[in-house]
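Recap from last week: sequence in, structure out.
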Amino acid sequence: MAHINLLPWREAQRQQQKTQYVVMLAAVALLTLALFWTIGSVVESMIAAQQQRNNFLQQQIGLLDTQIAKIKDIKDQKRQLEQRMALIEQLQANRNVAPNVLDELAQIVPPGIAFRSLNRKGNRLEVLGVSESNNRLSEFMRRLEMSKVFTTGDLSSIVADTSKTDAVSEFKLTFNISPTVAPEIAVAPQGGKS
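Predicted C-alpha cells:
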C-alpha cells in the first residue's frame, strides 16, 4: 500500500526555516556588533595613542619654548657684554689722549701765547687765551695745522686789550683732536631688548 503522510510537514518545515532564519539573523547581528565593537576599540586605542603623542609633543614644545627664551636672554646678555667690552676698549685706547694732547700743545705753543682756559668736550678743544701779537697767534695756528694730533682750527674771536701797558690780544680758538689720536667713543643705548 501507498504510504501517505498526514502529518503537517509543511508547517514543521516552515517552523524549522523560521528558526534557522532567526538563528542566522542573531548570528549576523552578533557578528556585526562584535565587528563594530572591535573597530570602535581599535579606533579608540588609535585616538588614545595619538592623544598621548600630542601630549608628548606639547611637553617638548613647552621645553623648547623655555630653552628659546633662555637662549634669547643669553644673547641679550652677550650683546650687552660685547657693548661693555667695546666701551672699555675705547676707554683704554683713549686713556693716554690727555697727556698726548697736553704734550703736543706744550711743543707747538710759541712763546708769547698764554692760555687762560682749556675745555674739552669729546674731541673738541676750546682755548681762551692771550697773545702778545697777532703774528704769534698766526704762528700758533700754522703749527696747529701742521700738527698730527690736532685738526681744523677755528679762530672765533680776537679782541685787543689796550688798557694794559703790554698790548695783548684775547682770543678764542676751537680745534679738534685728530680721530687717529682719540677715536670717538660710541656709546650704545642702554635698556630695551631687541
